[in-house]
Amino acid sequence: MNLSLRTAIIFATLLGLLLPSGVNGYISLTRQLDNAQRQISLDHQRIADILVLGMQEPLWNLSPDAGKPLLESVISDERIVRITVNDSTLGLFIEANKPERRRGHLHSLTRVVSKQGSNIGTITIELDDGNATTRIRSEQRLYLAAVLLQIVLSLGLILLLLESRIIRPLAELSRQAIQLARRELDEAFVWRRSDEIGTLGQNLETTRKSLKDLILTLEQKNLQLETDILGRRQIELALRASQDRYRRLVESTHIIPWDANPDEWRLTYVGPQAEALLGYPLAQWYQEGFLSSYLHPDDRHHAYRLFSETSKTGVSEFECRFLSSSGEEKWVLLTASAQCDANNKRTLQGFIIDISERKQAELDMERYRNHLEEVVEARTRALASANHELEAFSYSVSHDLRIPLRTIEGFSQVLLEDYIGSLDVNARNYLARIRSTTHNMTSLIDDLLNLSKLTRIEVRCQNINLSALSEEIVDEFRSLQPQRQIDIQIEENLRAHADPKLMLIALRHLLDNAWKFTERTQDAKISIGANEINGQTVFYIQDNGIGFDMAHANKIFSPFQRLHSHTELTGNGIGLAIVQRIIHRHDGRIWAKSQADSQTIFYFTLPNKPLADHRLPH
User: What sections of the protein cross the membrane (predicted)?
Assistant: First the structure.
């Protein structure tokens, strides 16, 4: 560290006076700050525990309004700046923000909200420590004021003593040193003091005299050097042309420099790399007519272009082929420019760049492109053939498999009607099982055909009313089972931008599941509605039926995956797979939440909607 004498003395004196009190004050204030931060951390953990418990039910039921009272109660703490509640699937769920409370350092704590072994969301709490540190900062200001007062008093006393004996003499020494630096050597430096500073001043006067004599000597030497420099400039001009040629050679060793005489069509210089390029010795390159002799027959017209046209246009660049000593074709990029030498005689200069690998890559790319076109054409034909075979197979399944099933079902019916008196109870039971199995097989064939058709059906989206479609399906279910007493609530005017035919199929399967799974439930209830989460409409169908274990939630949308036995409920286990394909065809998402023997909620989104609101005006 380079310090002036005055600064060093003041710094050392003040440091000795203030270091003990500064260390004691720092330790005391640090201990107070640690205690305050420890208390803030404990309060932060306690608030987070309260919010984790209080937000389980709102997150599980996707009800932001249910969590707002607790959020408003907690945000009343003046230290809390922001609380964010996120749903694990939908993102931001609910938020409270008080940015004006931020005064000091912001502490953030994030906790996971779980229910029934699943992570359903996270809670983030940001807490400000400004109020807790205000008192400590006040004590810091008082302590700083006391230290500053002590510094001022000490500084005044030190300056009073230093000014007369050290500072003024040093200032005079500094002024005289600046005169030496500026070469102002005519004024003599007079010192009559007998102390150390006086001795330094006398030495400075001796230095002034020596410098004055030295500068006179250097000026004489400088005149002699200027004469030598003029001679060296002439030598540099002679070397510059040669240096430029070899600089190009050294900097670009993979590029071959060359010079040529356009009047004689002959190379006057070529880089040593040329020998490795074609396999000919360098002496052969300098022969007259070398380019026209060893260019490819189809590219020999470029020799005229090089030597004749370049001399007129000044610049030329083209690709051509050389024949190597082994008979191999070498593709090169040949550049040329016309120059005038000191005698105003035109010469050609340029570079030869080997581009054989690039040309080979272009040829390979062209062949690969043609191959890809053939492959695409073959794949297109194969795909068309596969689609034709799939249609033929679907027709075979629809037509050929139904005939034997109808035959089995018909003969079973004849046996039951014509021979009812000759059949015992077991025989009638067997025939009834045969008819039930044929009906199930027919239903399975229909479901498989519908599932295969979904990927080929064109989606034609329009503005539709999901509430009206749901009411139409519910009316159909009530007409088939008028004895069922079930409470069905459908939110009015639910709008979406989707294909009405496909959404009718999806809603029918979802409502059919809810209708079946509440069959054995007392006070059965089905709800159809929508929530707005982060600007996205999330539709839901909820029932209080038998539910399922969430551990098997990843299986419910797979074909033929049933979470309940055939003895409990009917069905082929393909309905939800059809629903998922329909929702995915609309670029949407579908998922479920359930509790065994309690309730089931199916959520789905339909993002392809141009409407500003998902509800019709009343």
Answer: 142-162
201 pLDDT more than 70 = yes
Q: What is the CATH number of domain 7-145?
A: 3.30.450
Summarize the confidence of residues 110-120 as an average pLDDT: 85
Q: What is the DSSP string of 318-381?
A: EEEEEE-TTS-EEEEEEEEEEEE-TTS-EEEEEEEEE-HHHHHHHHHHHHHHHHHHHHHHHHHH
Rounded mean pLDDT, 112-125: 86
Strands 329-340 and 346-354: antiparallel
- 119: part of which helix (H) or strand (E)? strand 118-128
Taking the C-alpha atoms of residue 57 and residue 93, their distance in angstroms, rounded to an integer, is: 13
Instruction: Give yes or no for residue 465 having a pLDDT over 70.
Output: yes
Angle between helices 5-54 and 64-75 (to 10 degrees): 140
Structure tokens that stand for 477 in this block: 């279910």
In degrees, rounded to 5, the angle at the alpha carbon of residue 455 between the alpha carbons of residues 394 and 385 is: 55
- Decide if 56 contacts 115 (C-beta within 8 A): yes
| pLDDT tens-digit readout, 563-586 | 554 444 455 567 788 888 889 888
- Report, as an integer, the average pLDDT of 14-33: 71
Q: Could you tell me how many residues make up the chain?
A: 618
Q: Where are the domains of the chain?
A: 7-145, 459-605
CB atoms closer than 10 angstroms to residue 593: 22
Number of Cβ within a 10 Å radius of residue 101: 19
Q: Which residues contact 129 (CB under 8 A, 6 or more apart)?
A: 36, 37, 40, 79, 104, 105, 107
Whether 532 and 580 have beta carbons less than 8 Å apart is answered as no
Give me the pLDDT at residue 40, please: 81
Q: 242 vs 113, which has greater pLDDT?
A: 113
- Residue 466 to residue 470: CA distance in whole angstroms: 6
Helices 425-454 and 575-585 sit at what angle, rounded to 10 degrees?
A: 10
| 337 or 150: which leads in pLDDT | 337
User: Is residue 319 pLDDT above 70, yes or no?
Assistant: yes
**pLDDT tens digit sequence for 488-524:** 999 999 999 998 888 888 898 899 888 988 888 888 8
Residues sharing a CB contact under 8 Å with residue 31, sequence separation 6 or more, in sequence order: none
Residue 585 tokens read as: 């065809």
Residue pair 582/453 in contact by the 8 Å Cβ criterion: no
Mean pLDDT calculated for residue range 233-259: 71
Q: Which residues contact 444 (CB under 8 A, 6 or more apart)?
A: 572, 574
Which CATH homologous superfamily contains domain 459-605?
Answer: Histidine kinase-like ATPase, C-terminal domain (3.30.565.10)
Which amino acid is present at 64?
P
* CA dist list (Å): 200 to 176, 194, 214: 11, 10, 21
The DSSP bridge partners found for residue 127 are 80, 107
Distance between CA atoms of residues 318 and 347, nearest Å: 19
pTM assigned to the model? 0.39
Measured between alpha carbons, how far is 258 from 157 in angstroms, rounded to an integer? 81
| pLDDT tier, 156 (very low <50, low <70, confident <90, very high otherwise) | confident
| Helices and strands (H, E) in the chain, number of each type | 17, 16
What pLDDT is stored for residue 245 in this prediction?
67
Cβ atoms of 62 and 533 within 8 Å: the answer is yes
